[in-house]
Protein backbone atom coordinates (compact mmCIF):
# COMPACT_ATOMS: atom_id res chain seq x y z
CA UNK A 1 0.00 0.00 0.00
CA UNK A 2 1.66 3.32 -1.07
CA UNK A 3 0.91 6.76 0.30
CA UNK A 4 1.58 10.20 -1.21
CA UNK A 5 2.40 12.69 1.57
CA UNK A 6 2.52 16.44 0.93
CA UNK A 7 4.44 19.03 3.04
CA UNK A 8 2.39 20.42 5.95
CA UNK A 9 2.78 24.00 4.64
CA UNK A 10 1.12 23.10 1.32
CA UNK A 11 -1.85 25.35 0.46
CA UNK A 12 -4.97 23.55 -0.76
CA UNK A 13 -7.87 25.16 -2.55
CA UNK A 14 -10.40 25.38 -5.31
CA UNK A 15 -10.93 27.89 -8.10
CA UNK A 16 -13.77 29.66 -9.88
CA UNK A 17 -14.24 32.76 -12.04
CA UNK A 18 -16.71 35.65 -12.04
CA UNK A 19 -18.55 35.19 -15.35
CA UNK A 20 -18.71 31.42 -14.84
CA UNK A 21 -20.43 31.41 -11.43
CA UNK A 22 -21.82 34.82 -10.39
CA UNK A 23 -24.90 35.40 -12.57
CA UNK A 24 -26.75 38.62 -11.56
CA UNK A 25 -25.42 40.22 -14.76
CA UNK A 26 -27.90 43.12 -14.50
CA UNK A 27 -27.57 43.67 -10.75
CA UNK A 28 -25.39 45.74 -8.49
CA UNK A 29 -24.57 48.31 -11.15
CA UNK A 30 -22.66 45.80 -13.31
CA UNK A 31 -21.91 46.81 -16.89
CA UNK A 32 -21.85 44.46 -19.90
CA UNK A 33 -18.81 42.30 -20.64
CA UNK A 34 -17.65 40.76 -23.91
CA UNK A 35 -18.93 37.41 -22.65
CA UNK A 36 -22.46 38.80 -22.27
CA UNK A 37 -22.22 39.86 -25.93
CA UNK A 38 -20.49 36.68 -27.19
CA UNK A 39 -22.77 34.24 -25.36
CA UNK A 40 -25.83 35.97 -26.85
CA UNK A 41 -24.43 35.81 -30.37
CA UNK A 42 -26.16 32.88 -32.09
CA UNK A 43 -23.94 29.83 -32.62
CA UNK A 44 -21.09 30.88 -30.31
CA UNK A 45 -22.04 28.94 -27.17
CA UNK A 46 -23.50 25.44 -26.90
CA UNK A 47 -27.29 25.51 -26.62
CA UNK A 48 -27.21 29.33 -26.51
CA UNK A 49 -26.17 29.12 -22.85
CA UNK A 50 -25.02 32.31 -21.10
CA UNK A 51 -23.92 33.60 -17.71
CA UNK A 52 -27.10 35.50 -16.83
CA UNK A 53 -27.75 33.21 -13.82
CA UNK A 54 -24.88 30.68 -13.87
CA UNK A 55 -24.53 29.33 -10.28
CA UNK A 56 -26.10 32.51 -8.85
CA UNK A 57 -23.05 32.86 -6.61
CA UNK A 58 -23.59 36.62 -6.52
CA UNK A 59 -26.48 35.82 -4.14
CA UNK A 60 -25.34 32.39 -2.85
CA UNK A 61 -21.70 33.16 -1.97
CA UNK A 62 -22.32 32.54 1.75
CA UNK A 63 -23.55 28.99 1.00
CA UNK A 64 -20.54 28.51 -1.28
CA UNK A 65 -18.13 29.63 1.46
CA UNK A 66 -19.81 27.19 3.86
CA UNK A 67 -19.19 24.43 1.30
CA UNK A 68 -15.51 25.52 1.12
CA UNK A 69 -15.21 25.58 4.92
CA UNK A 70 -16.71 22.07 5.15
CA UNK A 71 -14.31 20.94 2.43
CA UNK A 72 -11.36 22.09 4.53
CA UNK A 73 -9.53 24.25 1.98
CA UNK A 74 -7.36 27.17 3.14
CA UNK A 75 -7.24 29.09 -0.18
CA UNK A 76 -9.98 30.08 -2.63
CA UNK A 77 -9.29 31.50 -6.07
CA UNK A 78 -11.99 33.73 -7.50
CA UNK A 79 -11.99 36.52 -10.06
CA UNK A 80 -13.34 40.05 -10.00
CA UNK A 81 -15.67 41.11 -12.81
CA UNK A 82 -14.07 44.32 -14.09
CA UNK A 83 -17.56 45.51 -15.32
CA UNK A 84 -18.81 45.35 -11.70
CA UNK A 85 -16.09 47.82 -10.62
CA UNK A 86 -16.08 50.04 -13.73
CA UNK A 87 -19.28 49.34 -15.71
CA UNK A 88 -17.78 51.23 -18.68
CA UNK A 89 -14.25 50.03 -18.10
CA UNK A 90 -13.08 53.45 -16.95
CA UNK A 91 -14.68 56.49 -15.31
CA UNK A 92 -16.70 56.41 -12.13
CA UNK A 93 -16.16 53.46 -9.81
CA UNK A 94 -19.25 51.41 -8.91
CA UNK A 95 -19.34 51.13 -5.12
CA UNK A 96 -21.97 48.34 -5.24
CA UNK A 97 -19.47 46.27 -7.15
CA UNK A 98 -16.72 46.83 -4.60
CA UNK A 99 -19.23 46.06 -1.82
CA UNK A 100 -20.04 42.64 -3.29
CA UNK A 101 -16.39 41.61 -3.26
CA UNK A 102 -15.97 42.98 0.27
CA UNK A 103 -18.84 40.72 1.39
CA UNK A 104 -17.27 37.72 -0.30
CA UNK A 105 -13.74 38.38 1.02
CA UNK A 106 -14.99 39.09 4.54
CA UNK A 107 -16.82 35.73 4.59
CA UNK A 108 -13.72 33.95 3.33
CA UNK A 109 -11.50 35.53 5.98
CA UNK A 110 -14.04 34.73 8.71
CA UNK A 111 -13.90 31.10 7.50
CA UNK A 112 -10.09 31.08 7.65
CA UNK A 113 -9.80 30.83 3.85
CA UNK A 114 -7.16 32.94 2.07
CA UNK A 115 -8.52 34.80 -0.97
CA UNK A 116 -6.47 34.47 -4.18
CA UNK A 117 -7.87 37.17 -6.44
CA UNK A 118 -7.67 37.12 -10.25
CA UNK A 119 -8.15 40.60 -11.67
CA UNK A 120 -8.84 39.48 -15.25
CA UNK A 121 -10.59 36.21 -16.02
CA UNK A 122 -11.86 37.16 -19.49
CA UNK A 123 -14.84 39.47 -18.77
CA UNK A 124 -13.59 42.64 -20.48
CA UNK A 125 -16.07 45.55 -20.28
CA UNK A 126 -17.94 45.61 -23.61
CA UNK A 127 -17.46 49.39 -23.92
CA UNK A 128 -13.69 48.88 -24.10
CA UNK A 129 -14.08 46.15 -26.73
CA UNK A 130 -16.02 48.63 -28.85
CA UNK A 131 -12.91 50.85 -28.68
CA UNK A 132 -10.65 48.04 -29.91
CA UNK A 133 -10.35 45.96 -26.75
CA UNK A 134 -6.90 44.52 -26.09
CA UNK A 135 -5.79 45.52 -29.60
CA UNK A 136 -5.95 49.11 -28.38
CA UNK A 137 -3.07 50.09 -26.08
CA UNK A 138 -5.42 52.42 -24.19
CA UNK A 139 -7.03 49.29 -22.71
CA UNK A 140 -3.71 48.70 -20.95
CA UNK A 141 -4.07 52.00 -19.09
CA UNK A 142 -7.71 51.28 -18.27
CA UNK A 143 -6.71 47.91 -16.80
CA UNK A 144 -3.93 49.41 -14.68
CA UNK A 145 -6.39 51.98 -13.30
CA UNK A 146 -8.88 49.20 -12.45
CA UNK A 147 -6.11 47.15 -10.82
CA UNK A 148 -4.84 50.09 -8.75
CA UNK A 149 -8.41 50.75 -7.58
CA UNK A 150 -8.62 47.14 -6.37
CA UNK A 151 -5.18 47.24 -4.73
CA UNK A 152 -6.08 50.39 -2.77
CA UNK A 153 -9.57 49.14 -1.85
CA UNK A 154 -8.52 45.68 -0.65
CA UNK A 155 -4.97 46.35 0.58
CA UNK A 156 -4.30 44.02 3.52
CA UNK A 157 -7.54 42.03 3.03
CA UNK A 158 -6.46 40.37 -0.21
CA UNK A 159 -2.75 39.53 -0.17
CA UNK A 160 -2.44 37.28 -3.22
CA UNK A 161 -3.18 38.77 -6.62
CA UNK A 162 -3.16 37.41 -10.16
CA UNK A 163 -3.13 39.89 -13.04
CA UNK A 164 -4.30 37.71 -15.97
CA UNK A 165 -5.78 34.27 -16.25
CA UNK A 166 -4.57 32.26 -19.24
CA UNK A 167 -3.27 35.03 -21.56
CA UNK A 168 -3.01 32.35 -24.31
CA UNK A 169 -6.79 31.90 -24.18
CA UNK A 170 -7.40 35.67 -24.05
CA UNK A 171 -5.17 36.24 -27.10
CA UNK A 172 -4.96 33.21 -29.43
CA UNK A 173 -8.03 31.16 -28.46
CA UNK A 174 -10.19 34.30 -28.58
CA UNK A 175 -8.66 36.29 -31.46
CA UNK A 176 -7.04 33.66 -33.74
CA UNK A 177 -8.98 30.43 -33.20
CA UNK A 178 -12.17 32.41 -32.61
CA UNK A 179 -13.54 29.96 -30.04
CA UNK A 180 -13.92 32.46 -27.19
CA UNK A 181 -14.99 36.13 -26.87
CA UNK A 182 -14.68 38.35 -28.83
CA UNK A 183 -14.30 35.56 -31.47
CA UNK A 184 -11.90 36.94 -34.12
CA UNK A 185 -9.67 34.80 -36.34
CA UNK A 186 -6.68 37.04 -37.04
CA UNK A 187 -3.15 35.93 -36.07
CA UNK A 188 -1.70 39.46 -36.08
CA UNK A 189 -4.57 40.72 -33.93
CA UNK A 190 -4.05 37.82 -31.49
CA UNK A 191 -0.33 38.60 -31.33
CA UNK A 192 -1.06 42.27 -30.63
CA UNK A 193 -3.43 41.19 -27.83
CA UNK A 194 -0.84 38.82 -26.32
CA UNK A 195 1.76 41.58 -26.28
CA UNK A 196 -0.59 44.18 -24.81
CA UNK A 197 -1.58 41.71 -22.07
CA UNK A 198 2.11 41.32 -21.26
CA UNK A 199 2.55 45.08 -21.05
CA UNK A 200 -0.58 45.45 -18.90
CA UNK A 201 0.74 42.71 -16.62
CA UNK A 202 4.11 44.46 -16.23
CA UNK A 203 2.58 47.90 -15.62
CA UNK A 204 0.25 46.40 -13.02
CA UNK A 205 3.15 44.76 -11.16
CA UNK A 206 4.98 48.12 -11.16
CA UNK A 207 1.85 49.85 -9.79
CA UNK A 208 1.46 47.13 -7.12
CA UNK A 209 5.04 47.77 -5.96
CA UNK A 210 4.79 51.58 -6.15
CA UNK A 211 1.59 51.58 -4.07
CA UNK A 212 3.33 49.41 -1.47
CA UNK A 213 0.39 47.00 -1.57
CA UNK A 214 0.76 44.19 0.97
CA UNK A 215 1.17 40.67 -0.33
CA UNK A 216 2.23 38.95 -3.54
CA UNK A 217 1.44 39.25 -7.21
CA UNK A 218 1.75 36.91 -10.18
CA UNK A 219 -0.08 35.75 -13.30
CA UNK A 220 -1.69 32.45 -14.37
CA UNK A 221 -0.68 31.10 -17.79
CA UNK A 222 -2.20 27.86 -19.04
CA UNK A 223 0.20 25.23 -20.30
CA UNK A 224 -0.14 21.92 -22.08
CA UNK A 225 2.55 19.35 -22.92
CA UNK A 226 3.33 17.93 -26.36
CA UNK A 227 5.61 14.87 -26.21
CA UNK A 228 7.48 13.94 -29.43
CA UNK A 229 6.14 10.81 -31.13
CA UNK A 230 9.68 9.74 -32.07
CA UNK A 231 13.33 10.76 -31.72
CA UNK A 232 13.21 12.21 -35.23
CA UNK A 233 14.41 15.82 -35.11
CA UNK A 234 11.38 16.98 -37.09
CA UNK A 235 9.03 15.53 -34.46
CA UNK A 236 11.02 17.07 -31.63
CA UNK A 237 11.10 20.45 -33.37
CA UNK A 238 7.36 20.34 -34.08
CA UNK A 239 6.60 19.64 -30.40
CA UNK A 240 9.04 22.34 -29.31
CA UNK A 241 7.08 24.87 -31.39
CA UNK A 242 3.72 23.65 -30.07
CA UNK A 243 4.99 23.77 -26.47
CA UNK A 244 6.55 27.22 -26.94
CA UNK A 245 3.20 28.61 -28.12
CA UNK A 246 1.96 28.14 -24.54
CA UNK A 247 5.20 28.22 -22.56
CA UNK A 248 8.05 30.34 -23.94
CA UNK A 249 5.71 32.81 -25.65
CA UNK A 250 4.12 33.69 -22.30
CA UNK A 251 7.04 32.99 -19.91
CA UNK A 252 10.12 34.37 -21.71
CA UNK A 253 8.84 37.99 -21.84
CA UNK A 254 8.21 37.93 -18.06
CA UNK A 255 11.24 35.85 -17.01
CA UNK A 256 13.78 36.86 -19.69
CA UNK A 257 12.51 40.18 -21.06
CA UNK A 258 12.29 38.87 -24.65
CA UNK A 259 10.18 36.66 -26.90
CA UNK A 260 11.65 33.32 -28.04
CA UNK A 261 13.55 34.12 -31.24
CA UNK A 262 12.71 30.85 -33.01
CA UNK A 263 9.00 31.54 -32.64
CA UNK A 264 9.35 35.24 -33.51
CA UNK A 265 11.01 34.11 -36.76
CA UNK A 266 8.31 31.45 -37.33
CA UNK A 267 5.59 34.09 -37.02
CA UNK A 268 7.55 36.53 -39.21
CA UNK A 269 7.46 33.88 -41.98
CA UNK A 270 3.69 34.12 -41.68
CA UNK A 271 3.74 37.91 -41.93
CA UNK A 272 3.10 38.43 -38.22
CA UNK A 273 5.24 40.60 -35.95
CA UNK A 274 5.06 41.59 -32.28
CA UNK A 275 4.08 45.30 -31.86
CA UNK A 276 6.86 46.05 -29.35
CA UNK A 277 7.30 49.70 -28.45
CA UNK A 278 10.29 51.32 -26.76
CA UNK A 279 10.49 50.21 -23.13
CA UNK A 280 7.81 47.52 -23.38
CA UNK A 281 10.08 44.55 -22.66
CA UNK A 282 11.61 46.19 -19.56
CA UNK A 283 8.09 46.85 -18.28
CA UNK A 284 7.05 43.22 -18.85
CA UNK A 285 10.23 41.83 -17.28
CA UNK A 286 9.21 42.84 -13.74
CA UNK A 287 10.07 40.38 -10.97
CA UNK A 288 6.91 38.63 -9.72
CA UNK A 289 6.27 36.66 -6.54
CA UNK A 290 4.72 33.48 -7.97
CA UNK A 291 3.23 31.95 -11.09
CA UNK A 292 -0.17 30.28 -11.23
CA UNK A 293 0.00 27.26 -13.52
CA UNK A 294 -3.16 25.92 -15.16
CA UNK A 295 -2.73 22.39 -16.51
CA UNK A 296 -5.40 20.05 -17.86
CA UNK A 297 -3.98 17.87 -20.59
CA UNK A 298 -1.35 17.16 -23.22
CA UNK A 299 -0.66 14.94 -26.20
CA UNK A 300 1.93 13.05 -28.17
CA UNK A 301 2.76 15.06 -31.28
CA UNK A 302 4.74 14.88 -34.51
CA UNK A 303 5.76 16.85 -37.57
CA UNK A 304 3.22 17.20 -40.34
CA UNK A 305 3.99 19.70 -43.10
CA UNK A 306 1.50 22.57 -43.36
CA UNK A 307 -0.58 21.23 -40.46
CA UNK A 308 -1.90 23.98 -38.19
CA UNK A 309 0.22 26.94 -37.17
CA UNK A 310 3.38 24.94 -36.42
CA UNK A 311 3.53 21.98 -38.90
CA UNK A 312 2.52 19.86 -35.90
CA UNK A 313 -0.21 17.27 -35.40
CA UNK A 314 -1.45 15.45 -32.34
CA UNK A 315 -1.19 11.65 -32.44
CA UNK A 316 -4.11 9.62 -31.10
CA UNK A 317 -2.35 7.36 -28.62
CA UNK A 318 -5.54 5.86 -27.24
CA UNK A 319 -5.12 7.67 -23.91
CA UNK A 320 -8.23 7.72 -21.73
CA UNK A 321 -10.20 10.90 -22.38
CA UNK A 322 -12.44 12.99 -20.13
CA UNK A 323 -15.99 13.88 -21.17
CA UNK A 324 -14.76 17.03 -22.93
CA UNK A 325 -12.48 14.87 -25.09
CA UNK A 326 -9.15 15.84 -23.52
CA UNK A 327 -6.45 13.22 -22.87
CA UNK A 328 -5.91 12.15 -19.26
CA UNK A 329 -2.15 12.77 -19.34
CA UNK A 330 -0.60 13.08 -15.86
CA UNK A 331 2.90 12.48 -17.26
CA UNK A 332 2.48 15.74 -19.14
CA UNK A 333 1.87 17.53 -15.84
CA UNK A 334 5.21 16.26 -14.49
CA UNK A 335 7.00 16.98 -17.79
CA UNK A 336 5.78 20.58 -18.11
CA UNK A 337 6.61 21.39 -14.48
CA UNK A 338 10.10 19.95 -14.92
CA UNK A 339 10.54 21.89 -18.15
CA UNK A 340 9.47 25.18 -16.53
CA UNK A 341 11.82 24.69 -13.57
CA UNK A 342 14.72 23.73 -15.83
CA UNK A 343 14.21 26.78 -18.07
CA UNK A 344 13.24 29.46 -15.54
CA UNK A 345 14.53 28.18 -12.20
CA UNK A 346 12.63 26.98 -9.15
CA UNK A 347 10.25 29.96 -8.96
CA UNK A 348 7.24 29.63 -6.60
CA UNK A 349 4.27 27.92 -8.31
CA UNK A 350 0.64 27.59 -7.30
CA UNK A 351 -1.31 25.14 -9.40
CA UNK A 352 -4.19 27.53 -9.90
CA UNK A 353 -6.21 25.16 -12.10
CA UNK A 354 -6.13 21.41 -12.53
CA UNK A 355 -9.22 19.31 -12.93
CA UNK A 356 -11.35 17.25 -15.22
CA UNK A 357 -14.64 17.22 -17.03
CA UNK A 358 -16.94 14.36 -16.07
CA UNK A 359 -20.64 14.98 -16.60
CA UNK A 360 -21.98 12.53 -14.00
CA UNK A 361 -25.42 13.48 -12.71
CA UNK A 362 -27.11 13.18 -9.32
CA UNK A 363 -28.52 9.68 -8.62
CA UNK A 364 -30.25 9.01 -5.29
CA UNK A 365 -28.72 12.17 -3.89
CA UNK A 366 -25.15 11.24 -4.82
CA UNK A 367 -22.78 11.93 -7.74
CA UNK A 368 -20.41 9.03 -8.31
CA UNK A 369 -17.69 10.83 -10.28
CA UNK A 370 -15.00 8.15 -9.97
CA UNK A 371 -13.33 9.45 -13.14
CA UNK A 372 -12.62 12.76 -11.43
CA UNK A 373 -11.22 11.01 -8.35
CA UNK A 374 -8.91 8.94 -10.56
CA UNK A 375 -7.82 12.09 -12.42
CA UNK A 376 -7.06 13.87 -9.12
CA UNK A 377 -5.07 10.91 -7.78
CA UNK A 378 -3.04 10.56 -10.99
CA UNK A 379 -2.27 14.28 -11.24
CA UNK A 380 -1.48 14.74 -7.54
CA UNK A 381 0.89 11.79 -7.84
CA UNK A 382 2.62 13.55 -10.76
CA UNK A 383 2.66 16.79 -8.79
CA UNK A 384 4.28 15.06 -5.83
CA UNK A 385 6.90 13.49 -8.13
CA UNK A 386 7.64 16.95 -9.57
CA UNK A 387 8.00 18.39 -6.05
CA UNK A 388 10.39 15.57 -5.11
CA UNK A 389 12.49 16.53 -8.16
CA UNK A 390 12.79 20.19 -7.04
CA UNK A 391 9.75 21.93 -8.54
CA UNK A 392 8.78 24.69 -6.09
CA UNK A 393 5.07 24.03 -5.57
CA UNK A 394 3.39 26.23 -2.92
CA UNK A 395 -0.19 25.12 -3.40
CA UNK A 396 -2.79 23.30 -5.45
CA UNK A 397 -6.25 24.56 -6.34
CA UNK A 398 -8.56 22.28 -8.26
CA UNK A 399 -10.77 23.53 -11.10
CA UNK A 400 -13.47 23.84 -10.08
CA UNK A 401 -15.31 24.17 -6.76
CA UNK A 402 -18.65 24.21 -8.63
CA UNK A 403 -19.95 23.01 -11.96
CA UNK A 404 -20.24 26.24 -13.91
CA UNK A 405 -20.48 28.00 -17.29
CA UNK A 406 -17.69 26.36 -19.31
CA UNK A 407 -17.41 29.09 -21.93
CA UNK A 408 -18.24 27.93 -25.46
CA UNK A 409 -19.32 24.55 -24.04
CA UNK A 410 -21.96 26.28 -21.91
CA UNK A 411 -23.35 24.17 -19.04
CA UNK A 412 -22.91 20.86 -20.86
CA UNK A 413 -19.41 20.32 -19.51
CA UNK A 414 -19.03 19.89 -15.74
CA UNK A 415 -15.66 20.44 -13.97
CA UNK A 416 -16.89 20.87 -10.40
CA UNK A 417 -16.34 18.76 -7.29
CA UNK A 418 -19.78 20.10 -6.38
CA UNK A 419 -22.70 19.44 -8.75
CA UNK A 420 -25.00 22.36 -9.57
CA UNK A 421 -28.58 21.84 -10.69
CA UNK A 422 -28.94 24.80 -13.05
CA UNK A 423 -32.74 24.77 -12.76
CA UNK A 424 -32.94 24.79 -8.94
CA UNK A 425 -29.34 25.97 -8.27
CA UNK A 426 -29.10 23.22 -5.64
CA UNK A 427 -25.51 22.25 -4.83
CA UNK A 428 -24.69 18.52 -4.32
CA UNK A 429 -21.25 17.49 -3.05
CA UNK A 430 -19.83 14.86 -5.42
CA UNK A 431 -17.83 11.78 -4.31
CA UNK A 432 -14.71 13.69 -5.51
CA UNK A 433 -15.54 16.44 -2.97
CA UNK A 434 -15.46 13.85 -0.19
CA UNK A 435 -12.24 12.31 -1.53
CA UNK A 436 -10.57 15.74 -1.67
CA UNK A 437 -11.92 16.57 1.82
CA UNK A 438 -10.43 13.37 3.26
CA UNK A 439 -7.12 13.99 1.53
CA UNK A 440 -6.97 17.53 2.93
CA UNK A 441 -7.59 16.25 6.47
CA UNK A 442 -4.35 14.28 6.40
CA UNK A 443 -2.34 15.95 3.62
CA UNK A 444 -1.79 12.51 2.12
CA UNK A 445 -3.66 9.94 0.10
CA UNK A 446 -3.37 6.27 -0.72
CA UNK A 447 -2.26 5.57 -4.28
C1 LIG B 1 -11.52 26.51 -32.73
C2 LIG B 1 -10.67 25.56 -31.93
O1 LIG B 1 -11.00 25.65 -30.55
C3 LIG B 1 -10.32 24.72 -29.80
C4 LIG B 1 -10.74 24.88 -28.36
O2 LIG B 1 -9.54 25.14 -27.65
C5 LIG B 1 -9.60 25.26 -26.30
C6 LIG B 1 -8.39 25.26 -25.64
C7 LIG B 1 -8.38 25.37 -24.27
C8 LIG B 1 -9.58 25.50 -23.58
C9 LIG B 1 -9.55 25.58 -22.12
C10 LIG B 1 -10.62 25.57 -21.27
N1 LIG B 1 -10.06 25.56 -20.04
C11 LIG B 1 -10.78 25.48 -18.75
C12 LIG B 1 -10.89 26.91 -18.28
N2 LIG B 1 -9.58 27.45 -17.85
C13 LIG B 1 -9.96 28.67 -17.17
C14 LIG B 1 -11.29 28.38 -16.50
O3 LIG B 1 -12.17 29.41 -16.83
C15 LIG B 1 -11.77 27.06 -17.09
O4 LIG B 1 -13.14 27.11 -17.46
N3 LIG B 1 -8.74 25.62 -20.14
N4 LIG B 1 -8.41 25.61 -21.42
C16 LIG B 1 -10.80 25.52 -24.25
C17 LIG B 1 -10.82 25.39 -25.64
Automatic annotation (TrEMBL):
The keyword Hydrolase appears for this protein: yes
Family: Belongs to the glycosyl hydrolase 1 family.
Catalytic activity, EC: 3.2.1.21
Protein name: Beta-glucosidase
Domain of life: Bacteria
One MF annotation (Gene Ontology) recorded for this entry: beta-glucosidase activity
Keywords, alphabetical: Carbohydrate metabolism, Cellulose degradation, Glycosidase, Hydrolase, Polysaccharide degradation
Annotated binding of substrate, by residue: 20, 121, 165, 296, 399, 406-407
Pfam family, one: Glyco_hydro_1
Species of origin: Halalkalibacter hemicellulosilyticusJCM 9152
UniProt record, GO biological process: cellulose catabolic process
Cited NCBIfam families: BGL (TIGR03356)
Active site (UniProt): 166, 353
InterPro entries: GH (IPR017853), Glyco_hydro_1 (IPR001360), Glyco_hydro_1_beta-glucosidase (IPR017736)
A cellular component term, taken from the record's GO annotations: cytosol
Catalytically driven reaction(s): Hydrolysis of terminal, non-reducing beta-D-glucosyl residues with release of beta-D-glucose
Amino acid sequence: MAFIQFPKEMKWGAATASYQIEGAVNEGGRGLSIWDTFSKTPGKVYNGDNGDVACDSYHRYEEDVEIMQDLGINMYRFSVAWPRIFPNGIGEVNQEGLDYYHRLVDRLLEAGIEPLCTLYHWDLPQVLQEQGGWDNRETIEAFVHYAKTMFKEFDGKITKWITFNEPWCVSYLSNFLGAHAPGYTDLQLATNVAHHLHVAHGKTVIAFRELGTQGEIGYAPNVEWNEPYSDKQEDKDACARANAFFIEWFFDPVFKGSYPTFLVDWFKEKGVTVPIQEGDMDIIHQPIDFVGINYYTGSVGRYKKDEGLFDHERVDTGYQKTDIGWNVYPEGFYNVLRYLTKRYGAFPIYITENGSCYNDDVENGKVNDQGRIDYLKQHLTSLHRAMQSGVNIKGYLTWSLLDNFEWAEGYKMRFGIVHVNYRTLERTKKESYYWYQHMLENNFFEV
